[in-house]
Amino acid sequence: MSATGVLAPAREPLTHGRVIRLALPIVLSNATVPILGAVDTGVVGQLGLAAPIGAVGIGAVVLSALYWIFGFLRMGTTGLTANAAGEGDTAEVAALLTRAMMIGFGAGLAIIALQAPLFWLAFTLSPASDEVEQMARAYMSIRIFSAPAAIGIYGLTGWLIAQERTAGVLVLQVGMNIVNIGLDLLFVLGLGWGVEGVALATFLAEWSGLALGFWLCRDAFAVPAWRDWGRVFDRLRLVRMALVNRDILLRSLMLQAIFLLFMFKGAGFGDVQLAANQVLIQFMEITAFALDGFAFAAEALVGQAMGRRDRPGLRRAVLLSSFWGGVICLCMALAFALAGGLLIDLLTTSETVRAAARDYLPWMVATPVFGITAWMLDGVFIGATRARDMRNMMAVSLGVYLLALWALVPLMGNHGLWAAMLISFVARGVTLALRYPALEAGAERSAE
């Protein structure tokens, strides 16, 4: 196996520099994500009509939501692959890539087959004008045929992260964006293909991204186990992968329920409060983009340590990645405190929304501080493939959140809504922290 192969990272000393090298490409990769959406909106905006902008926005949101259901594939693949890499099981690392691709392709083909009822459901839940719906359907009917590639890339990304090959993730993301942006400009501004041109550009970019991902993972195909069907379809390994992915999916659905309830409750306070909340949620997205690199570092390093049955290495991985995650969160909190008003003004021109967002800004300043434990322990538990603990602790946190909504919103209004959100973060962090000693003990028992 080459120096970029699966076993090399586990032999390196675990230092602050190693954590930063692992995290930085993810942070840079995340920074490119908003650029693509801006370009998609910008090129159709040049058509001078409102409907194409709305159609691309709705179509992209619907498809992203469908694909997000299979986001567990990224997290589950990272944890399982990191464990196998830590064990030195090169054959299983290669076989895991094949399993992840089979799941991604199968899920994508299922979405293509079910597109008619899925589109009907989407427009029933989110009705639009006839013109926007017609354009959005045209957009989605092209893009949906890249579903196998889009979901498969989740598996490829998780596989690369598990082996600390995050520079490859950055290359993959930037490469896809360059193709997408270039084709956007050609198809829409050059050839005048409108909404269909934006969809075709994304379709080709996602399949190109999958091809690039396979090239980045080419060392896996040098190991015969990638097509050792007896190993790939081994019942015990398949069951373990299914259980890990199932629990991550359930955990993610409960987390999504918290955010949906937050938005629905916020809507009950009127348009201004809803808009202010939406503006401030963007602060949380910024924090997540910055923190992801160190949470992903925890996934890879903890997973490898668990695979090696290395309890001291596990603890050091947790401490180093969490230290830098904490630094990021404190920087975010300070930045929001000092420049939050300026950021609000950049995100909206409505004076009433600006004023409301400033009223609730202190909650967003506090969010990185109160959320750091939950966010970093998510990475730790994903790397350790302790998905059942994540599922159970999220269920407890959801219950605490519902109780906080019931108690605080009638008393404090929208402030109570934000307080309940922060309480849910604290509950998740505390409950996962209570399970952490068992995670370490599990690594120690494995070594015995």
Fold and architecture overview:
The chain is mostly helical. It has 2 domains: about 10-235, no CATH class; about 245-448, no CATH class. It has helices at about 10, 15-30, 35-45, 50-70, 70-85, 90-115, 115-125, 130-145, 145-160, 165-190, 195-215, 230, 235-265, 270-310, 310-345, 350-385, 385-410, 415-445. Helix 13 packs antiparallel against helix 18. The longest helix is centred in the middle third of the chain and has 38 residues, at about 270-310. It is globular. The two termini are about 30 Å apart. Residues about 1-10 have low confidence and may be disordered.
Shape descriptor: globular
Order of helices and strands: HHHHHHHHHHHHHHHHHH
**Secondary structure: number of strands:** 0
Rg result:
22 Å
The number of helical elements comes to: 18
Major sheet characteristics: none
Quickly count the domains. 2
N-to-C span = 29 Å
The quaternary structure here is single chain
Low-confidence stretches: 1-8
Whole-number mean pLDDT: 86
Helical percentage: over 70%
Structural class: mainly alpha
Residues in β-strands, percent: under 5%
